[in-house]
Amino acid sequence: MATDTYVGSVDQGTTGTRFMVFDHGGNVVASAYEKHEQIYPEPGWVEHDAMEVWENTKSVMNTALDKGGLDPEQLEAIGVTNQRETTLLWDAETGAPIANAIVWQDRRTTDRIETLEDEGKADMVQQKTGLEPDAYFSATKAEWLLDNTDPIKLQRARPQDVRERAEAGDLMFGTMDTWVIYNLTGNHITDVSNASRTMLFNIHDMDWDQELLDEFNVPAETLPEVRPSSDDETYGSTDAGGFLGAEVPVAGALGDQQAALFGQTCFDSGDAKNTYGTGSFMLMNTGNEAVMSDHGLLTTVGFQRSGEPVQYALEGAIFITGAAIEWLEDMTLIDDAMESESVARSVDSTDGVYLVPAFTGLGAPHWDQRARGTIVGMTRGTRPAHVVRATLEAIAYQTKDVAEAMVEDADIDLADLRVDGGAVKNNFLCQLQADIVDTNIVRPVVDETTALGSAYAAGLAVGYWETVDELRKNWQVDREFEPNEDADYSKEFERWHDAVDRSMGWAQDDDE
């Protein structure tokens, strides 16, 4: 294998977009990042400007290559990974979005989900998709856009109804992977992992489900083609005459959490990882079996390589973890995220304070769309350090909730948990996590495993890496955190659940 070729990864996240270039050893050789605006039109609503995201994507790709002194011709392939569930519709003729993208955190369709549940359809949705019906997923977002976007103003004709345009195939639906792939290649494609997060895709038949499309009134004509996560046929290539100035195949795509599973080389049944980003997402590979959860977890597509069976996963989706640390900054309780470690260490305990970061409701395993952020147990002696420590403990407690559910569902012991994402740089949090979950926490050298996972998927597709065994050899431990024998959080964990109970059902329609 030539030493001067690489694989690139577009990591389109909730708060920004990163482009990373990896060598054959899985090492980062170039990287660039840009944030995009978070748009909050109303309480509980979150949007992104998809054109801003695309402009940033082009910018970070060129910046990373320039910083690394690399020619785009040296890229053998590009992979894409993305914030999942975030949904947009764009005009097939002009390529312009018809409205802002609705972000996965957005709660505007809560009422629609409650109607679905009242009609007794939640079980049907869960059996087909593996998902707990929630405003989190794409289906109700797409339905809302189709029902509420202003008519499209055409240059040569009267304004046309959005649904009329959609049914004629003049509009394209996509999650952010689809948007990036479309702009890179001109092709309307998603991968199996992202399709499985839309609440429109049957994970057993591995195809769009007409009953679900009818339920959410999303025309099939708007949907992208579904392809393997690592695709030997590729999704297309960049245009040599375009912004990159080279023809590079785009050959892999994975939703961000599945990408982290792939990047952590969790290729075997029972392998598990937890990613600490805006939220935390714990996934366990369950092999070729779609294990349906009895404990509030999601059953999802893990990944698929060309010509191979689908690998499924159980997932515990925790909506707010890293975002809770950002909230501490917003409230000026800390100056920056790294300070959370030293501030939390400055006190021996939370002094009875519990924080439930249900800022956008609660995900797994509680699934309460109307839960809201709660602090309980404060006294006149409560100090900022107690709240900071309670926030870090909340991240660990939420993970323990999910880990216990996962072990029950999969009937597999959790030998260790591979972790990644920005928050794992916090040694205090990692040790706290080991103590509370009572398992080894293993942090790899390369903790940007989301970008690495999509690079691996693309590189495997074009033969840059021949086998997954090569990828396993790349994976290296930075540090392992073992449970402290003297640590006992059993009483605190019970009290945590009392705090969770107090957060639930808080938001009412007149609050939103």
From TrEMBL:
This is Glycerol kinase. ADP binds at T14, R18, T278, G322, G422, N426. NCBIfam families: glycerol_kin (TIGR01311), PRK00047.1 (NF000756). ATP binds at T14, T15, T278, G322, G422. Residues 6-263 form the Carbohydrate kinase FGGY N-terminal domain. Pfam families: FGGY_C, FGGY_N. Key enzyme in the regulation of glycerol uptake and metabolism. Catalyzes the phosphorylation of glycerol to yield sn-glycerol 3-phosphate. GO terms for cellular component: cytosol. One of its GO terms (molecular function) is ATP binding. The lineage of its organism: Archaea, Methanobacteriati, Methanobacteriota, Stenosarchaea group, Halobacteria. Keywords: ATP-binding, Glycerol metabolism, Kinase, Nucleotide-binding, Transferase. Its EC number is 2.7.1.30. Glycerol binds at R84, E85, Y136, D256, Q257. Belongs to the FGGY kinase family. Residues 273-461 form the Carbohydrate kinase FGGY C-terminal domain. It comes from Halohasta litchfieldiae.
